[in-house]
Amino acid sequence: MQAATHARQTAQGATAPGYDLRQIDCDPNFWYPVAWSAKVRPGKAFAARYAGQPIALIRPEHGPVYALEDRCAHRQVPLSKGVVDEAGCIKCCYHGWAFDRRGQCVTVPYLNREDVGRPVRGYPCRERGGLVFIFPGDPALAETVPLPDVAQVGNPEFKTRQFSPRLKCHYTFMHENLMDMNHQFLHRRQMGSITARFLGQDAGENFMEARYSFARKGGNQPLAEALIFGRHHDLEGREQPVEEVVSVRTTYPYQTLKIHDKDGDLVMDLWACYLPLGETQQVTQAFGLLSVKKPKWAFLLDMAWPVLGIFTHRIFEEDREIVEMEQKAWRELGGDHNIEVFPVVRKLRTLLATHGVPNPHATPQG
């Protein structure tokens, strides 16, 4: 708790030493997705992780999914390797110790006595939008922290795609990459010659938002890009009108990208959470949902859906290569040497530092 307070004071301009942003862990007192619901099958257990914590997700044949520490209290073997019994408890694969959804040991079969086995940690667990969320922080806070809204899942006017790539980088690189739309040069092979136009920003205690439009400077527009951003034409040097507004927002710890057309209607809604992995959180499991508004003739979007998937995958792979290069440079240089000049990203970095928690291995700077 003292470390978290120190990080907040430092980010707000206190004179105390600060921390390298890549050594700031996610605040665990939020709901984090750790698996797709479809991966956790009835009567089965599923192995997941949050940062350095192994998590066992158990879905009984009847009743909701629950989450426990993925270590048996007896010999520390993974509970996710165990068997779900008729009562919905998880039995360790080694000696058959059984644990209920609270993590209490209800059976040590070869002793036939109560109150013998030790409990394991249980995590508050919920499902929304096809994702299983856990609350890895203080369980007493779970009821007061709302689950996030996840794109337009369940809205029949939209078609939604799931994605969950793993990246070899700190989660903060992902927030910076999406927030800073000035990197379109990176995607020139996929999108041709376009440029981002900064329209404005908003900020609050727990969020940072930037708004952009895009202008085509030459070349033909890819079909998939037209589906997402609308039709853009090269006007031979003339200023192009704002046909749509792209809003990128980090509301800690989640990130969204929404596109509204010139009439103000939402046409695309992206939601993402960057789940930290590993003790130093230098690996990220992204969970994302991309919702696209169906046109009047919905079958047109269905026909273009595979093309859109290929296009978004190629764009993401270019981003992946870049953020992993950034992480590699951080390791080789021994810290964060970025010289950031875009005010939006500088404010974003402050937001992430303010709401995160310094890693136990972090070294104060200054």
Automatic annotation (TrEMBL):
InterPro entries: Cholesterol_7-desaturase (IPR050584), Rieske_2Fe-2S (IPR017941), Rieske_2Fe-2S_sf (IPR036922), VanA_C_cat (IPR044043)
Rieske domain boundaries: 31-134
Single GO MF annotation: 2 iron, 2 sulfur cluster binding
Record's keyword terms, sorted: 2Fe-2S, Dioxygenase, Iron, Iron-sulfur, Metal-binding, Oxidoreductase
CDD domains: Rieske_RO_Alpha_N (cd03469)
Name of the protein this chain belongs to: Aromatic ring-hydroxylating dioxygenase subunit alpha
Taxonomic lineage of the native organism: Bacteria, Pseudomonadati, Pseudomonadota, Alphaproteobacteria, Acetobacterales
